[in-house]
């Protein structure tokens, strides 16, 4: 199957999505609950983006990990959710994807306020670099509810399209920068206050680390727990809906159901 997928991906970018077997599409999509609430036309666009994503990007398995067709297609589908509206142009500034079979450790030198350099060890599930690569750990279905490492890291790459990750990605021309800033600043301040006072939060408390992390975590929640994000931070939900070009909430799904 791995060799077969490579043959499909070597075709021209305008090849149809049925060049990948229907059984493979169905098997992979069934294991991604974040896709189940998407309208049919959105899922069709997602398939097209995922197919072209696979043709353009380079996958590498770390620690001897063998990347199956299912794994690569699953990552491609999830990675393309944040670019449903802006398209692959949103990922133009990098090529490589590194996939680990689990979390991984990175060593970094950090200088403290006294000028002393320390070697720190960090255990990570993913990491995105400006210019690539994007690094993710592979998590089969059944992981923690609302957590999606792939969406998180690819949201970071979208954020980096206009410079360092700061929670303010480039916006389509019809979106208002002031409205974006107002929505995200208010929600970020609310989350930080809740974390500081030990109060329950809808978003992972890690989102309080930095506005860039808030954007990435909110992007995960937008697709994985849309109703919860919409009910807690409706202005953020609306801004993400405009950026991503989709409304995955249950109310939207109900309104489009015959």
Automatic annotation (TrEMBL):
One of its GO terms (cellular component) is cytosol. It holds the Pfam family Peptidase_M90. It comes from the Bacteria. GO terms for molecular function: aminopeptidase activity; metallopeptidase activity. InterPro entries: MetalloPept_cat_dom_sf, MtfA_fam, MtfA_N. PANTHER family: MTFA PEPTIDASE, PROTEIN MTFA. This is Zinc-dependent peptidase.
């Amino acid at each position: 199957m791995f060799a077969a997928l490579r043959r499909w991906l070597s075709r021209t970018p305008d090849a149809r999505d049925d060049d990948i077997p229907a059984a493979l599409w169905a098997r992979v999509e069934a294991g991604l609950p974040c896709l189940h609430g998407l309208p049919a036309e959105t899922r069709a666009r997602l398939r097209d983006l995922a197919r072209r994503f696979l043709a353009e990007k380079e996958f590498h398995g770390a620690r001897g990990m063998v990347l199956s067709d299912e794994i690569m297609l699953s990552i491609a589908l999830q990675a393309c959710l944040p670019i449903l509206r802006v398209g692959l142009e949103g990922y133009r500034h990098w090529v490589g994807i590194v996939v680990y079979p689990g979390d991984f450790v990175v060593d970094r030198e950090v200088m403290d306020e006294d000028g002393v350099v320390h070697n720190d060890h960090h255990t990570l599930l993913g990491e995105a670099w400006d210019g690539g690569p994007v690094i993710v750990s592979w998590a089969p279905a059944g992981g923690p509810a609302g957590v999606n490492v792939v969406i998180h890291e690819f949201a970071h790459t979208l954020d980096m399209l206009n410079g360092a990750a700061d929670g303010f990605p480039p916006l389509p021309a019809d979106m208002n920068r002031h409205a974006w800033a107002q929505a995200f600043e208010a929600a970020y301040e609310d989350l930080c206050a809740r974390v500081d006072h030990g109060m329950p939060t809808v978003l992972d408390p890690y989102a309080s680390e930095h506005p860039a992390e808030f954007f990435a975590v909110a992007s995960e929640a937008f697709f994985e727990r849309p109703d919860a994000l919409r009910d807690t931070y409706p202005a953020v939900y609306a801004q993400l809906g405009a950026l991503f070009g989709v409304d995955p909430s249950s109310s939207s799904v109900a309104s489009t159901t015959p």
